[in-house]
Amino acid sequence: MELTESIRLLFPPEERAQLDISAIKGDASNRQYYRVTGQGSVSVVCADPAFRATAVENYPFLIVRDLFARHGIRVPELLGMVHEQGLLRLEDCGDLMLQDEVPLLDRNRLSARYRQVIDLLVRIQSIRPDKDALTTTLPFSLSFDHEKLMFEFDFFIEHALNGYFAGRLGKPAIARLREEFINICDLLVLPKHFVLNHRDFHSRNIMLFRAEPVVIDFQDARLGLPQYDAVSLLRDSYVRLDPGMVNELKRYHFNQLVQLGLTSMGEAEYLRLFDLMAFQRNVKAIGTFCYQTTVAGNRTFEPSIAATLSYLREYIEARPELAMAGRLLKPIIPEISR
C-alpha cells in the first residue's frame, strides 16, 4: 500500500477521498511529516519506521508525550495511529517556530519570550517518576552517562574530523583530542545533579501556536545536567542571541532551579558546568551537521557548522579544563586560527 493511501486510513471513510496531503520539511531524522487537510480540519501525520518496528507501549515518542502532557507541558495532541504502517496523526500546531519569531521582537519582548520558554523548560526538569513507576522505565532509564557523551564525541570525530574536515588534524592529534574528550565527560557525569531533559530543546523544536510555546521532537528525553537543555536553547545553532541577554537568561534559569529546589549547585558551579556542557553539546551538533552534509547529502545544515564552531572559542578561553582541547581543535576554529 502506498504511503498516501495508508495516511488516509487515519481518517473517517467518508473523508478519505477529499484529503489534501502535502509533505512538510522534516528534521535530521528518518521520520517524514505530512500536513493533511480535510473537511474543516488540518492535522499532521508522522511516518516513522521505528514506530512500526516497536510495540506501541514501548515507543518513546508516545511514552514521553503522555508523560509531558500529564505534567502540564504543552505538546501536540495525539489524534490517531496506524501502528502497522508506522503512522501517527497529530494536532497541527502551525509552522511558526521560536526561530522565526526571534528577528521580529525587540529586546524586551524577546527576553520575555525566552523567560516563558525557560519556565516551560524548568517544568520539564521538575518531572520525577510517578510513585508507581520504576526508574528503569523510559525516559528515566536513560541518561547522559559517560557512554552516551563519548558516543556523541566519537560521532564528531568520525564525521567532522575524519569526514567534513578530513586532513585538518592528524591521527596523533585526534587521538590526543579523544583523551581530552574522555576527561571532559568525567566532569559532566554528575548524577546527583541530573534532572529530566528534553534533549533537543532548541528554537526549531519550540512551536508558537496561538502565542503559546508547544514542545515537539521530545522522544529522546533523558536525565542529565540541567544545563544541557539550557545550552540547547541559549547556545542554539540556529539562533544567536545577544551575549548580555544570554547571561541574563542563564541566571534566570539558575534562579528558577534554586527556587524549585531542583539544584544544589552554587551559581559559579552552574556557570562553569554550563560552559563545559555547551562545549560538548555544540561539538555534538557539529558532528551531526557534518554527517548530514557529507553522508546524508543534506546540505541545508551546512551553514550551521561554522555558526556552531564560532561558539567554541568563548568556552575554551573561559575554562582551563578546555584549553588543551582548544589547542588541538585550532585548525578548524577560524577565530583561534587567526
What characteristics describe this protein?
338 residues, alpha+beta, Aminoglycoside 3'-phosphotransferase, Chain: A, domain 2, 5-stranded antiparallel sheet, two-stranded antiparallel ribbon, 48% helix, Kinase-like_dom_sf, Aminoglycoside phosphotransferase domain-containing protein, Aminoglycoside_PTrfase
Give a quick rundown of the structure.
This protein has 2 domains: 3-91, Phosphorylase Kinase, domain 1 (2-Layer Sandwich); 98-337, Aminoglycoside 3'-phosphotransferase, Chain: A, domain 2. With 338 residues, it is of the alpha+beta class. The mean pLDDT is 94.
- From N to C, what is the helix and strand string? HEEEHHEEHHHHEEEEHHHHHH
Distance between the termini: 57 Å
Sheet with the most strands: spatial strand order: 1-2-3-5-4
Poorly predicted ranges: none
The name of the CATH superfamily of the largest domain reads Aminoglycoside phosphotransferase (APH), C-terminal lobe
**Radius of gyration of CA atoms, rounded to a whole number:** 21 Å
CATH-derived architecture of the largest domain: Alpha-Beta Complex
Structural class: alpha+beta
- Count of helices? 13
- Class of the largest domain in CATH? Alpha Beta
Count the beta strands: 9
CATH topology group of the largest domain: Aminoglycoside 3'-phosphotransferase, Chain: A, domain 2
Mean pLDDT: 94
**Strand residue percentage:** 5-15%
Q: How many discrete structural domains?
A: 2
Report the major sheet.
5 strands, antiparallel
Shape: globular
Q: What percent of the residues sit in helical stretches (DSSP H or I)?
A: 40-55%
Organism: Chlorobaculum tepidum (strain ATCC 49652 / DSM 12025 / NBRC 103806 / TLS) (Chlorobium tepidum)
InterPro entries: Aminoglycoside_PTrfase, Kinase-like_dom_sf
Protein name: Aminoglycoside phosphotransferase domain-containing protein
